[in-house]
Amino acid sequence: MKNIRNMDVEWGYEGELGPKHWHTLCDWFSTGAKYPYQSPINLSKNLINGESSSRAIDFCYKTEEFTEKEFKNTFHFVPPNTESYIIFEDEKYYLTDIHFHTPSEHTLDGEHSQLEFHLVHMNNSGDNLVVGCLFSITTDENKFSKNETAMKWKSETHQQWFDPSIFLPEEKSHFHYLGSLTTPPTKGPVHWFVFNTVQKMHHDFFERIHEGMLPFNNRPVQALNGRKIYFSE
Asked: Domain named Alpha-carbonic anhydrase: which ranges (predicted)?
């Protein structure tokens, strides 16, 4: 087994480089895979077993600059200045990356959505918090339609300006659980907040960010292993 870091290791979603084999590709991946609460998981109100305490998160997002990047099998929006953040349990988690998976990685009552966006955050201690937003693809007018979106695109420079709140649903009810990253090294713990609303994304917007990407880049659902799942209205 190779003793090298994530940036140097080739991995993917099929064959010998696929999810079943990630833990064999290097020591770092092997260590991450040993964390018992892996992600993604199936989410259902029937599986809620956590105490009915508040799992509220406060979104402090603002319009800021993002750079488009294609990295490790997906498309990313990366904010160079990390001005947006979330507050959870009196701790600030700064938005460091936005990317997507097709189809969704998390399932609701066993069903995949067509698309799942991950808004990745990190606090000053290096702990991760990820917000999952589920979407279906449509040609109906919605907030991602060309005439509706507030995103300012500069295709020639790959720089965009937008408020990341555009990815959030109006209805903020969500699941919360402890899991892992869904890509190598799949380390944990990671606070996961996944909205139970499936939003709509315009087909043209999706095609723009999906062009040239893999047809699928989702890790299979992982075992619960007795972990707590919370739900907040």
From this structure: 9-233
The angle formed by the CA atoms of residues 89, 95 and 97, to the nearest 5 degrees, is 140
CA distances from 181 to 21, 27, 62, 105 (A): 16, 16, 25, 11
Q: What is the mean pLDDT of the chain?
A: 90
Tell me the Cα Rg of the chain: 17
Phi/psi of residue 177, each to 5°?
Answer: -155, 165
pLDDT score at 2: 45
Question: What span, in angstroms and rounded, lies between the C-alpha atoms of 184 and 77?
Answer: 19
CATH of domain 37-232: 3.10.200.10
Domain ranges of the chain: 1-34, 37-232
> To which residue do tokens 């892996």 refer?
38
Find the distance separating the first CA and the last CA of the chain, reported in whole Å: 45
3-state secondary structure of 227: coil
pLDDT higher than threshold 70 for residue 77: yes
Q: In what order do the strands lie in the sheet with 111-112?
A: 42-43, 107-108, 111-112
The model's pTM: 0.92
- Which two structure tokens, joined as six digits, stand for 222? 């992982």
Strands 91-101 and 159-162: unpaired
What's the rounded Cα separation, in Å, for the pair 136 and 103? 10
